[in-house]
């Protein structure tokens, strides 16, 4: 019997870097177990530096688009992960769903590739620790 994939939404303020990288990483690492989405409270375009540093580790997020959390109203998620404090404070209500908060520094504030790499690696480490074991 085939197991249904768990639906996960990564939520950030702009959906331009952290949530986009998290979406790409979870899909690449555990896409066989999770259906992954990302959105923003006030979405902007995907940051080219996020695309660049993900490409460095063999993950292509260039086709991902920034989306508003409003696009997902009414959709049922098994887990909503806020990856910044602003998203945590302004997260819309998803009834009956588990919400996890794991804040990462916004690399776009410095717009430095090393800052993007550092956050990418932190997100990857957390995803492996959190999602890598049993299915949550």
UniProtKB/TrEMBL annotation:
Alphabetized UniProt keyword annotations: Arsenical resistance
A Pfam family matched in the record: LMWPc
Superkingdom of the organism of origin: Archaea
Domain Phosphotyrosine protein phosphatase I residue range list: 6-133
Coiled coil: none
SMART domains hit by this protein: LMWPc (SM00226)
Gene3D superfamilies in alphabetical order: 3.40.50.2300
GO biological process entries: response to arsenic-containing substance
Record-linked CDD domains: LMWP_ArsC
PANTHER family membership: ARSENATE REDUCTASE
Protein name as annotated: Protein tyrosine phosphatase
Species, as recorded: Archaeoglobus sulfaticallidus PM70-1
């Amino acid at each position: 019997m085939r197991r249904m994939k768990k639906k996960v939404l990564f939520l950030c303020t702009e959906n331009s870097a952290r949530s986009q990288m998290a979406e790409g990483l979870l899909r690449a690492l555990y896409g066989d177990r999770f259906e992954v989405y990302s959105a923003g409270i006030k979405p902007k375009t995907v940051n080219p530096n996020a695309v660049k540093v993900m490409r460095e580790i063999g993950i292509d997020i260039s086709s991902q688009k920034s989306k508003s959390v409003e696009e997902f109203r009414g959709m049922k998620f098994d887990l909503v992960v806020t990856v910044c404090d602003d998203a945590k404070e302004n997260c819309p209500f998803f009834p009956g769903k588990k919400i996890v908060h794991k804040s990462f520094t916004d690399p776009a504030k410095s717009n430095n590739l090393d800052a993007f790499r550092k956050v990418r690696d932190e997100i990857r480490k957390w995803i492996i620790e959190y999602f890598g074991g049993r299915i949550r």
